[in-house]
Every structure is written in structure tokens, then in C-alpha cells.
Design a protein that fits this description.
The protein has 305 residues and is an alpha+beta fold. 47% of the residues lie in helices and 12% in strands. It has ten helices and eight strands. The strands form two sheets. The protein has a four-stranded antiparallel beta sheet with strand order 1-5-6-8, covered by helices on one side. A hairpin with a 2-residue loop joins strand 5 and strand 6. The two termini are 42 Å apart.
């Protein structure tokens, strides 16, 4: 068997000896990169009012600079809260409303003032609206976790929610990754079960994002397996605002899945579920190999042979 390709290590010094101009170009590019990094750092420092040491002359005292920076932070936090209130106001209609718990509101505003991104501010505005309509909808634990989430982490959660479905009696969100079923006839006693898998990475949820959500405690780390699913019993599967009835084609079928944690389920309600017809089609095609799948309008996706 051929060995896998190994990375080629190039010695920079030998390259310069063989081609001096190429070495000079590489050094020039490196200096340009350093210069660009310095400009970027200077811009970041200036935006946060901590760039005094980057200039030859310090125009104000340290106390003055600190006071000005704190004022800028408080003004920006005030702007964040006002923007969230504005977005929430635009979302509200004539729904029946109640009074949220005062302690919840205080903690909400203390956390929401540090939310700077547009996308996250929209999410926090939806949380506030939901709490006004139905107090107790979002726990402080979920808010604390959400406060620490980056935009990338929130987007990973949103992509996971787009692939989530529910089945079984617990009502929690699940990510189906496949199923296994026994071989036909006597083969079942001598051969392992047939396993079919659905690659979530093909639907914009790579394993790195799955691990990220596991690290946040939003999805349980262990891939789970359902109990034995046997005919003639059917069970509902809900996803993408549709309901399907699944009837196993044979005895001994099990479904593989990852399960959202309680906090993950709570945040999933806030994030919502975007339509993903390609994934739903792929999931139904996969399950049709082991189940008779009937849609919520009564049509049959497959027919039992």
C-alpha cells in the first residue's frame, strides 16, 4: 500500500541561496504583513481608547484617559440596550402581554448591554418580546450561556436547529445520524446489523460545529441509540413544521442520534428553525430504507416491498 503524502518541508535559507530575489520578495511580504498587523492593532486600540502609548506624546493624563474610556463604554452599552428595545418594539404587535419578573429584567439588561453584534441584538430582542408575552419563557441560565456565545457559536446552533427533529416521548430536539437494521433471514445470526449513515457535514453542520455545541453544553456528547423499533407499531417524527408517521419494515431497527440538552432545547426555541428542504429530503430518503414513511398529508414516501 502506498504511503500517504507527506508534507514537504522547505528550508527558507536554502531558497534564498538558490534564488536571492525570491528570498527578498518573501522578506518584503513578511514586512508588509507586520506593517498591516500594526495598522490593524492601532485601529483596534484607537477604537477602544487605549492607544496612548502608541504615540510619541501622551496628550492627557492616565486618569483622564481612563475616565474618558469608561464614559465611552457606558455610552456604547446604553446604545446597545436602546437598540435592543427598538428592535423589540418593531417585533411587538397587539399580543396579550404580562409583566416579566423584575429580577429577570434586571439581569437581562445587565447582560444585554454587552451585546454589540447586530445578529445577536436581534436574538436578544426576540427573547425580551417572548418574556413580555409569556414570563418565564427563558431561564437566567440560558441567558448566561447566550451572553458568552460568539456570533459563530450562535450560527452553529442555528444550523443545528435547522436539522433538528423530534421523535419519542421526551419532545427534545434530536439530530438523526442514521439507523441500523438486522440482515434478512438466517444472515442476521452470522452478520452484524446493516448500518446506514447521514453525513450532517453535507448540510452545513460539520463535526467541528457539533463539537463546539457539545463544549457549550447544548448537545450531549454521546451519540445515542433508540430502543428497538418493531412493526406494526408506528411513531411520529416532527421536523421542518411537518409530521411524518414511521412504521418499521422489520424487527430490530434502531435509530442513531445526538440529543439536545435542556439548555440547548431552550435556546433552540429562541433561535427558531429555518427551512432546509434538501436535508429533509435526504433524511426521508434515508429513513425510507428502514421504514414506511407517511407524510402529514397522508401520502406515502415509500411502499413496503
Amino acid at each position: 500500500m502506498a504511503e500517504p503524502n507527506k508534507p514537504v518541508v522547505i528550508d527558507a535559507e536554502s531558497v534564498e541561496k538558490e534564488n536571492p530575489k525570491r528570498g527578498e520578495k518573501s522578506q518584503s511580504q513578511q514586512e508588509s504583513h507586520i506593517k498591516s498587523s500594526q495598522h490593524r492593532l492601532a485601529a483596534i486600540a484607537a477604537a477602544h481608547h487605549i492607544d496612548a502609548k502608541l504615540h510619541d506624546i501622551e496628550h492627557d493624563t492616565l486618569t483622564t484617559r481612563a475616565a474618558f474610556r469608561q464614559l465611552e463604554i457606558k455610552q456604547k452599552q446604553q446604545e446597545n440596550l436602546e437598540q435592543i428595545i427598538k428592535i423589540c418594539n418593531d417585533l411587538c404587535r397587539d399580543e396579550t402581554a404580562s409583566s416579566p419578573d423584575p429580577d429577570w429584567l434586571y439581569r437581562f439588561f445587565e447582560m444585554a448591554k454587552t451585546i454589540y453584534g447586530d445578529g445577536m441584538q436581534n436574538l436578544w430582542a426576540r427573547i425580551l418580546k417572548q418574556e413580555i408575552i409569556k414570563p418565564g419563557s427563558t431561564s437566567l441560565k440560558a441567558l448566561s450561556l447566550l451572553e458568552t456565545m460568539t456570533q459563530r457559536e450562535a450560527q452553529a446552533l442555528q444550523r443545528a436547529c435547522a436539522l433538528a427533529c423530534t421523535f419519542g416521548g421526551d419532545g427534545s430536539n434530536k439530530l438523526i445520524t442514521g439507523f441500523r437494521k438486522p440482515e434478512d433471514g438466517m444472515k442476521r445470526y452470522f452478520k452484524p446489523d446493516i448500518a446506514e449513515r447521514l453525513a450532517l457535514g453535507n448540510f452545513k453542520l460539520p463535526f467541528t460545529d457539533l463539537m463546539l455545541l457539545m463544549d457549550l453544553g447544548l448537545i450531549l456528547r454521546t451519540e445515542l441509540e433508540s430502543g428497538l423499533l418493531e412493526p406494526p407499531a408506528s411513531f411520529p417524527l416532527m421536523g421542518q413544521n411537518k409530521t411524518f408517521m414511521l412504521t418499521p419494515l422489520k424487527k430490530g431497527i434502531r435509530i442513531y442520534y445526538y440529543r439536545f440538552s435542556p439548555t440547548g432545547n431552550e435556546l433552540a426555541k429562541l433561535v427558531g428553525q429555518k427551512a432546509h428542504p434538501e436535508y429533509l429530503d435526504a433524511l426521508m430518503a434515508l429513513l425510507s430504507k428502514a421504514f414506511v414513511v407517511e407524510s402529514d398529508v397522508g401520502s406515502t414516501v415509500n411502499e413496503k416491498a
